[in-house]
Design goal:
heterodimer; A: Ribosomal Protein L9, domain 1; 2 domains; 5 strands; B: alpha+beta; two-stranded antiparallel ribbon; 8 helices; about 60% helix; flat; disordered N terminus; DNA replication (chain B); DNA replication complex GINS protein SLD5 (chain B); SLD5_C (chain B); GINS_Sld5 (chain B); nucleus (chain B)
C-alpha cells in the first residue's frame, strides 16, 4: 500500500518521544523512491487521461499518496528539529560524541546554525546598557538555595568561581558550591547534586 | 522581595522605580507564561532591571563574603535573574513555536510601529525560520518529484489557540466586555476592579496587552 513506510518512520520516532534516535537515512531514501515511482506512474497516466477518463481516479489517489508522503516526511523532520533544540538547551553548543552520531550531517549543520543564532540573540540582550548578554540556558529551574552540595563524578580539573577562588574538581570529591555556577556542569554530567 | 531591592538603593526616588520595575516585570512574566499568544515586549523594563542587577552586584561585592546580608541579597538577585531569564525564554519558545504566524503579524505591525518583538527577537525569528526552510529543502524538498517541491508555509504554520480559557484578575473597572457565544448570541459583562474570572482569552486579549487585567 502507498505511504506505508512513512507511517512506520513516524511511529518509530513517536515511540521514544523524549529521546532522539538515529536519523533514518535508509527509510527516507525508500520513501523518496516510492514518491518518485508514484510520480512517474502518474505522469504516464496523466498523459493518457485525455483519451481514457477512467484513469483519472487512479491518478488522484496516487497524488494524495504523494501529498501524504511529503507531509509525513516534513512532520518527521520537524519533530526531530524540536528534539535537537532541546539538546541545545541541555548540552550547550557542543554535543557529546554519542549524541552527535545520531544526527545526520544536515541536521548537525542545522544544530550549529540554531546554536549560533541563539548565541547571538543571547549576546544582544542588554547590549544597550553595556551588558555582555545573558546566558538563558542557565537558570532553567527556579533557585531554591544559594549553595548546593555536589559530588564530582569524573576528573574535571580546575574550576574558577565567580569570586576568583579556584577549586579542584576530582573524581568522588564533594563540594559545597553556589548553585548558579554548577548548573551547567551538572547538566554536562560532571557534577551530581546530593541532597 | 521589594524590601531587599530598596536596601541597596541610596536615594528615595530610585527606590520607588526599582520596585515598580520589578513588579511590572513580574506581571509581564506572569502574563507571558499564561497567555497563549505572544505579548508586546517589555524590553525597557528588562534592561532597566539588568542595570539594577549590575548595580546591586557591585554593592554586594563590597560586603564581606561571610556577611549574612551578602548571601540574602545574592539569593534575591538569583530570583530576579531567574524571572528575567524565564520571561525571555518563554517568549523565545513562543516565537519558535508560532514562528510563521508571528512573523506575518509582526510585518504588519512594524508598518505601524506597534511591534511586539524587540529587534533582536525579530532577527532571531527570521533566522530561525530561514534555517528551518533551508534544512527542509536540502533534506527533503530538493529530492521529491518536481510538483511536490514547494514549501507551503501556510500549511506548516502553527497558530496559538486564542479560544483557550484563562484565569484573570481585573486591575481596574472594565465596562462592556463582549463575550461571543457559540450560538452567536453576544453577552456583555463588566469586570469589577479586583474581581477574578475565568474567560476565553480572545475577548480579553487587548485588556491584557494594555494592562487593564492580568492573568493569574
Amino acid at each position: 500500500m502507498f505511504a506505508e513506510k512513512v507511517i512506520e518512520l513516524l511511529k518509530e520516532s513517536e515511540r521514544n518521544p523524549d529521546t532522539i534516535d538515529q536519523f533514518n537515512d535508509d527509510k527516507i531514501r525508500q520513501i523518496l523512491e516510492e514518491m518518485d515511482l508514484l510520480f512517474k506512474m502518474n505522469m504516464n497516466d496523466a498523459n493518457a487521461t485525455t483519451e481514457n477518463r477512467s484513469l483519472w481516479t487512479t491518478v488522484q489517489v496516487r497524488h494524495s499518496a504523494l501529498e501524504r508522503n511529503k507531509r509525513c516526511l516534513l512532520a518527521y523532520l520537524c519533530s526531530r528539529m524540536n528534539k535537537i533544540k532541546t539538546l541545545r538547551w541541555e548540552f550547550g553548543s557542543i554535543l557529546p560524541a554519542d549524541i552527535r552520531e545520531l544526527l545526520s550531517d544536515e541536521e548537525y549543520e542545522w544544530f550549529s546554525k540554531y546554536s549560533t543564532n541563539l548565541a547571538s540573540y543571547m549576546r544582544s540582550l542588554g547590549q544597550d546598557i553595556g551588558y555582555s548578554g545573558i546566558d538563558l540556558t542557565e537558570n532553567l529551574k527556579p533557585p531554591k538555595s544559594l549553595y548546593i552540595e555536589v559530588l564530582c563524578v569524573l576528573d574535571y580539573g580546575k574550576l574558577e568561581l565567580e569570586d576568583g577562588d579556584v577549586i579542584m574538581l576530582k573524581k568522588n570529591s564533594r563540594h559545597f558550591l553556589p548553585t548558579s555556577e554548577c548548573q551547567t556542569l551538572i547538566r554536562q554530567g560532571v557534577l551530581k547534586q546530593i541532597t | 522581595m521589594e524590601s531587599n531591592v530598596h536596601l541597596d538603593l541610596s536615594d528615595e526616588e530610585e527606590e520607588i522605580t526599582a520596585e515598580t520595575v520589578l513588579k511590572t516585570l513580574q506581571t509581564a512574566w506572569q502574563n507571558e507564561r499564561l497567555a497563549p499568544e505572544i505579548l508586546p515586549h517589555h524590553n525597557d523594563m528588562v534592561e532597566c532591571m539588568l542595570g539594577q542587577i549590575q548595580h546591586m552586584e557591585r554593592n554586594i561585592n563590597k560586603l564581606a563574603k561571610t556577611d549574612l546580608r551578602a548571601s540574602i541579597h545574592k539569593m534575591e538577585l538569583n530570583r530576579i535573574k531567574f524571572v528575567i531569564c524565564n520571561y525571555l525564554k518563554t517568549r523565545l519558545n513562543k516565537i519558535e513555536k508560532y514562528c510563521i504566524h508571528i512573523l506575518n503579524e509582526e510585518r504588519l505591525r512594524l508598518e505601524t510601529s506597534t511591534n511586539y518583538l524587540t529587534p533582536s527577537e525579530y532577527k532571531y525569528a527570521q533566522d530561525y525560520l530561514l534555517n528551518i526552510e533551508n534544512h527542509i529543502k536540502s533534506v527533503i524538498l530538493n529530492k521529491v518529484p518536481s510538483n511536490m517541491q514547494a514549501l507551503e508555509m501556510n500549511k506548516i504554520a502553527e497558530y496559538p489557540n486564542l479560544q483557550t480559557h484563562v484565569f484573570l484578575k481585573a486591575n481596574e473597572m472594565v465596562n462592556g466586555v463582549v463575550l461571543e457565544d457559540l450560538t452567536g448570541e453576544d453577552e456583555e459583562i463588566d469586570l469589577e476592579e479586583g474581581s477574578q474570572h475565568i474567560l476565553q482569552y480572545k475577548p480579553i486579549a487587548d485588556l491584557v496587552k494594555n494592562g487593564k487585567v492580568q492573568l493569574v
